[in-house]
């Protein structure tokens, strides 16, 4: 069992993004060759925007960093406007001094998807593992595309997306019928091996999932609850996302403004 998850609560989503971006920048400054685990979705967009500004202002450099993304849709080519590779290029990679060959996103159009998963795991191992992993959380408690019922020791694999996740992601596509039904995702076991994990959650729609992840024991109904077994895990929340936490967790949290 790891240490207790640390909780930081910001007054709003901007303050939460500032906090996470600053933590990532400090980590890179301390170890320029940092191995970063990165997430997509709406939550980290502001974090990436702030990191881009820091790079452009000369405060931090990604030139020696290596990155591994959590997941990718099966069937979407890297240049598809809703692929996670495209997301990362447009939100971060194209605007910072990262070396293209050091940015890794699973291929959703690999000829052999299962070999792609094995190769992705091997690439992470070859770099010595992830130093700092950024996560979001789904309304059903998923982390990456590890849906409820996922195994705690799971590795990078091809997974079926739940109807809830498909519906939640439909806003990014023309119609729900265009949302992919499968994805490649890092497994929970892979994620838990990161030296440090930062999960960011904002908005009242995430409050129930956050409360379940942090209170009560780990369980398959909430993949994020398995982070309780991590050695160095921090949840950075805005006030809305923290609104259903038990009083004891609120009292022990650090508040950031």
Describe this structure in words.
This protein has about 260 residues and is α/β, with parallel strands linked by helices. The protein has one domain: Rossmann fold, CATH 3.40.50. It is built from eight helices and eleven strands. The strands form two sheets. An eight-stranded parallel β-sheet has the order 5-3-2-6-9-10-1-11. Strands 4-8-7 form a three-stranded antiparallel β-sheet, with helices on one face. Helix 1 packs across helix 2. The radius of gyration is 17 Å and the shape is globular. The two termini are about 30 Å apart.
Map the helices and strands:
Elements: E1 6-10, H1 13-30, E2 35-38, H2 45-56, E3 66-69, E4 71-73, H3 84-91, E5 103-104, H4 113-126, E6 132-135, E7 157-160, H5 163-169, E8 182-185, H6 188-192, E9 196-201, H7 207-214, E10 233-238, H8 247-252, E11 254-256
Parallel strand pairs: 1-10, 1-11, 2-3, 2-6, 3-5, 6-9, 9-10
Antiparallel strand pairs: 4-8, 7-8
Helix pairs in contact: 1-2
Quick one: overall form?
globular
- What Rg do the Cα atoms give? 17 Å
Spatial arrangement of strands, main beta sheet: 5-3-2-6-9-10-1-11
Strand content: 15-25%
Q: What is the H/E string?
A: EHEHEEHEHEEHEHEHEHE
User: CATH class, anyone?
Assistant: Alpha Beta
Would you identify the CATH architecture?
3-Layer(aba) Sandwich
Share of helical residues: 25-40%
Total number of helices: 8
Report the strand count: 11
* CATH fold group: Rossmann fold
Distance between the termini: 31 Å
Average pLDDT reading: 96
Q: What does the largest sheet look like? A: 8 strands, parallel
How many separate structural domains?
1
Helix-strand category = alpha/beta
- Low-pLDDT parts are none
């Amino acid at each position: 069992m790891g240490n207790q998850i640390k909780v930081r609560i910001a007054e709003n989503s901007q303050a939460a993004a500032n906090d996470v971006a600053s933590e990532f920048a400090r980590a890179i400054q301390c170890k320029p060759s940092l191995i970063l685990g990165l997430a997509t979705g709406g939550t980290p967009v502001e974090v990436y925007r702030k990191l881009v500004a820091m790079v452009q202002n000369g405060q931090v450099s990604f030139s020696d960093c290596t990155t591994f993304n959590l997941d990718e849709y099966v069937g979407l080519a890297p240049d598809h406007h809703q692929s996670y590779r495209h997301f990362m290029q447009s939100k971060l990679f194209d605007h910072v001094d990262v070396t293209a060959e050091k940015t890794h996103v699973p291929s959703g159009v690999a000829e052999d998807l299962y070999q792609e998963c094995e190769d992705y795991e091997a690439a992470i191992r070859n770099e010595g593992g992830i130093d700092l992993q950024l996560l979001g959380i789904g309304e059903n408690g998923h982390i990456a595309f590890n849906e409820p019922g996922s195994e705690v020791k799971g590795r990078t694999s091809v997974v079926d997306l739940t109807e809830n996740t498909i519906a939640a992601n439909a806003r990014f596509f023309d119609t729900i019928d265009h949302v992919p039904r499968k994805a490649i995702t890092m497994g929970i076991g892979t994620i838990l091996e990161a030296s440090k994990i930062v999960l960011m959650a904002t908005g009242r729609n995430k409050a129930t999932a956050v409360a379940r992840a942090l209170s009560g024991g780990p369980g398959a109904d909430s993949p994020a609850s398995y982070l309780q077994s991590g050695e160095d895990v921090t949840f950075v929340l805005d006030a809305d996302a923290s609104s259903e936490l038990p009083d004891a967790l609120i009292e022990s949290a650090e508040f950031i403004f």
